[in-house]
Amino acid sequence: MRKIQKHEGVIAKYKKYLPVTAKTPIITLNEGNTPLIYAGYLSGIIGRGFEVYLKYEGLNPTGSFKDRGMTMAISKACEERSNAVMCASTGNTSASAAAYAVRAGLKCIVLIPKGAIALGKLSQALIHGAVVLAVDGNFDAALDLVKDITAKYPITLVNSLNPYRIEGQKTASFEICDSLGEAPEFQVMPVGNAGNITAYWKGYKEYKKEGKIGSLPKMLGFQAKGAAPIVRGYPVINPKTIATAIRIGNPASWRQAEDARDESGGLIDMVSDNEIITAYKLLAAKEGVFVEPASAASIAGLLKLCRRGFFKKIKVAKAKNKKIVCILTGHGLKDPDRAIESIKEPKVVKPKLEAILREIGY
Ligand code: F0G
Fold first, then answer.
1. Other CB atoms within 10 Å distance of the CB of residue 32
2. Which of these, 163, 161, 104, 101, lies nearest to 132 by C-alpha position?
3. Spacing, Cα 247 to ligand 1 middle (Å)
4. Calpha distance 202→263 (Å, rounded)
5. Which mutation among 34, 67, 90 tests ligand 1's pocket best, with the greatest number of atoms within 8 A of CB?
6. How far apart are CA 80 and CA 70, in angstroms?
7. Cα dist. 299→73, 140, 249, 328, 351 in Å?
8. Three-state SS at 219
9. 160 ligand 1 Cβ < 6 A
10. What is the pLDDT of residues 140-188, one digit of tens each?
11. pTM score of the predicted model
């Protein structure tokens, strides 16, 4: 008999809030239930009694938050008797789609921008047997093609334009509230195609309506400076950033991201590649958490706001809830090349005791 596990994925846990019925086949890798880690170093930087927490979504089964949405999208594709799924991706969506498609026995086709996705992500899509096509263009062009093809052929689109993706991804906000016993005051996150900010905001609003939380967080989103269409107010034709996951010039959920920002009283700002790399290294060196560069945009944003005195302006008396949750969307091992490039490679030493002792100062 199949052994029952404590956590059987986000659909089993949050069924009540998801569009599933007894007839929906649940395709899962037991995603979700990721840790909310207290960040002592960052809390010290922000000061004034603020507590910073890291929602480490890189610990999902394929190493990113996409699994929460993919369990829903693939389960519903099965329920609707689809036999193929397709997405455009900067890497993580394709890794997740490929893995969940295997479990469902579906064909998976992914379009990736040529030469612009991190090695770990490419290896995942390939090893799970997806049909991977590298398009000589950027993510936005690849997504347009996927929209076109899935509209004309019996293939299910599993980008976040698929509403089931958003439904699944909103479970991360439920987990945060369940852990804290309340919504945080601020939630900080990277913004690319803008599906995730849309999903979190939807989740928080639903939990508030259900009476699970008394207040809503302010949503603080960050784009990369060279790929910041929402901040600039116009599509970026040729987006550029080392954070390849969020190298997107025309986000599909643009309007919804603006709604989340405006309804919550938050903001969407941008951070430079330098700021992203500084935050990426700081998180690894000071908090012991390894993320991919796009995820470090959360921390880069937090630090930028702190430098500007943003958190000093918050009235302490009013802010009885002083929790800040930063979403760390993907694991650092997704992009090992970036880690090695950012830090010195290991020094080569002779295989001799004295040589090693000299290096380590004993
Ligand atoms: N962080 C990571 C690690 C991502 O992979 C993505 C998006 C984002 C943040 C931004 O989330 O698009 O919902 O605003 N990756 C997509 C992909 C585009 O294809 O894997 P978003």
1. 27
2. 101
3. 9
4. 11
5. 90
6. 15
7. 29, 26, 22, 9, 40
8. strand
9. yes
10. 999 999 999 999 999 999 999 999 999 999 999 999 999 999 999 999 9
11. 0.96
